[in-house]
Amino acid sequence: MKKAVNSKRPVNLDLRTIQLPITAYTSILHRISGVILFVGIAVLLFALDRSLASEESFEQVKACLANPLVKLVIWGLLSALLYHLVAGIRHLIMDAGIGETLEGGKRGSKIVIAVAVVLIVLAGVWVW
């Protein structure tokens, strides 16, 4: 009997040892940041609703936002937003036909990570 798949082909199912290219990491992070934004917007809309309910509710939300843990969550949401924005701009540039080669994709991914890190650090300084 012949096997349908070549048995000499290497199979690596250990996710800890798989070496993904930088383009894969930026793509995965773009998707993760989108999910974080989807959930985070619901939380922020709830906080906005509470702050607009009354003057007391506004003061409660204001006091809550002074909590260091809440500041960390806000910084996380801002980080997701900034990364998603930068990666989205990269996608728009690639849709225009710029950086579609393998080398261009790698260079674009490195630029996305560098710009996002700078913006995330600046956002952290602004929040804290």
TrEMBL record:
Signal sequence, renumbered to the chain: none
Lineage summary: Bacteria, Pseudomonadati, Pseudomonadota, Gammaproteobacteria, Pseudomonadales
Subunit structure: Part of an enzyme complex containing four subunits: a flavoprotein, an iron-sulfur protein, plus two membrane-anchoring proteins, SdhC and SdhD. The complex can form homotrimers.
InterPro entries: SQR/QFR_C/D, Succ_DH_cyt_bsu_CS, Succ_DH_cytb556, SuccDH_FuR_B_TM-su
Cofactor: heme
Keyword annotations of the record: Heme, Iron, Membrane, Metal-binding, Transmembrane, Transmembrane helix
Cell compartment(s), UniProt: Membrane
Transmembrane spans: 28-48, 68-87, 108-127
Protein purpose: Membrane-anchoring subunit of succinate dehydrogenase (SDH).
Gene this protein is translated from: sdhC
Protein name: Succinate dehydrogenase cytochrome b556 subunit
Major localization listed first in the record, in broad terms: membrane
Family: Belongs to the cytochrome b560 family.
